[in-house]
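We store amino acids, tokens; thus:
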Amino acid sequence: MRSLIFEPFSGAAGDMILASLIGLGADREKVRETIESAVDVSVSVGSVNKRGIEAVDVKVHATRETHHRHYYELVDVIKSAGLPAGVEQSALGVFAIMGEAESKIHGLPLEELHFHEVGQNDALADVIGSCFAFHEIAADAVLCTAVNVGGGKLKAAHGMMAVPAPATLEILKSSGLFFYGSGNRELLTPTGAALLAYFSKPVENIPRGRVVSIGYGAGDADTEDPNVLRSMLMDLRDTLSRDIIEVLETNVDDVTGEVLGNLFDRLLSAGARDVTITPTTMKKGRTGHIIKVITKPQDSDHVARVLMKETGTLGVRVIPTKHRYVADRRIEKVDVSIRGEIFEVAVKIAQDRTGEILHMSAEYEDCRKVAEKSRIPLKEVMRRVEEEAWERFA
């Protein structure tokens, strides 16, 4: 799978994303022509050395000063630019992410919302150029490791604010991107956050694969570490994570249902990852059960001891499994409206290493409480929660 991976160890801004994509192979002349035909700016693409790293440097020069724009003015600029359909759709999507974040922060509907910094022509140019470059690269998947947002304070239109800026933080919250703070200045801008949020899925580590090409996009900051955004095109070999487990198994024929019921909790507390108990017929026609436990190798001894103490079995078989494919999992929260009341419910999201979502499941305990309070059947609550989760995160 041909995947584009961002490593924002020194943050990300619109011009850095655009520059790194050009470094990966997006046609700089086509990018420049697209931007200049859509926005009243001129664009230069060169290179600069950032503390020993040669990086692509994109400069957007506004031919005239622009003031803040209302959200729908930006929409009109993009729709009237004559962009390819996919690029237009992406640019509108990126500004929608920023608009929703600003709307929530200021408590204003979109039609009353106006942008300061991100309403300028250079921000429009960064978004349109980056969207064009993303579509030209045409990766099968776009991934992003944890973003360094920087630290300290920044001067915004509304005064001094802590890093990250409120709009940036809201975008990070909605997107689920991983981030951390290091440094004494803003490293992740709202435009950079919105572009990453729109195009990429979060990953904790770089998946296994082969690097095809590398791009470095220069930022404007003068930092102790190179202020560049590194991107890679990779041919990923594994899209699912792997881990190493052992399967413990034993047969019992003289254990009551009450003991077996208690056994589940005892084994899970001891480190078991999963427990199954299957009825079976044993020698001399006696009824019994096969107990199977999945655990990590380092927990096997302790789990086996608990199994012996709780059931009285005299032996536990160990079935080593060198590799097990597993989905990466994370917990997110969704708000669901039921009978006029808003409930927050946890959802478990399973995805592969490219960020593609494989499954979503509502957490039972949260749904049970909602069902009890709203007097709605549990299965209907779970259906609504999962439907909302697919709408938000897929």
